[in-house]
Amino acid sequence: MTGLLQPPLGEDALRALFTKPYGAPGPTPEQWRALYDGAVHFTDPTQERQGLEAYIVAQEGLLQRCDDVFLEPGAVALSGDVAFVEWTMGLKIKGFEFIYPGTSRLRLGADGRIVDHRDYFDFVGPTFTPVPLVGGFVRWLYGRFVA
Fold first, then answer.
1. Residue 49: CA atoms inside 13 Å, Cβ hemisphere, count?
2. Which of 104, 128, 127 is closest to 35 using CA atoms?
3. How far, CA to CA in Å, does 23 sit from each of 8, 69, 71, 92?
4. Half-sphere exposure at residue 48, Cβ-oriented, CA atoms within 13 angstroms
5. Which neighbouring-strand residues pair with 86?
6. Taken in order 18, 90, 22, 36, is the CA torsion positive or negative?
7. Where are the beta strands (DSSP E) in the chain?
8. pTM of the model as a whole
């Protein structure tokens, strides 16, 4: 056996990483550290973080801001050092449930840990469409400029 770690991420591990039912606890910092490189770069429509500790703070912050969170994987594709995971995320906040379909692109380092994680999803539509008054304006904007 060489000194390299065995890659921790295959399809089953990715599905497990992107699965969190409502009411279940989120991953622990130790679980994040087992799968993510210490210098991981993370980007989504609302933030950009550099380093594992900043990533963990962002994930724990999301869980603390919400009454509950769920994450459910869809299709998973692996090719070389890149993985894509389709997912659906639900956030319960102050009596509202927000549903975000999205996809993550993960780039893996030589040891199989995630070195770059980018999430793609529509933040504006699912966040503001259910809100009275604002939702009508967002639907109008989407109809005018996106549809």
1. 21
2. 104
3. 26, 8, 11, 11
4. 0
5. 103
6. positive
7. 36-44, 47-50, 68-79, 82-93, 96-108, 114-121
8. 0.83
Tens-place pLDDT, residues 101-146? 999 999 999 999 999 999 999 887 777 777 777 777 777 776 777 6
| Predicted local confidence at residue 146, as pLDDT | 65
pLDDT at residue 53 in the model: 97
Sheet holding 96-108, edge to edge: 47-50, 36-44, 114-121, 96-108, 82-93, 68-79
The one-letter amino acid at 75: A
The set of residues, in sequence order, having a beta carbon less than 8 Å from that of 49 and lying 6+ positions away, is: 41, 42, 43, 55, 57, 58
Question: Which residue is it, tokens 């210490």?
Answer: 38
For tokens 């609302």, name the residue.
46
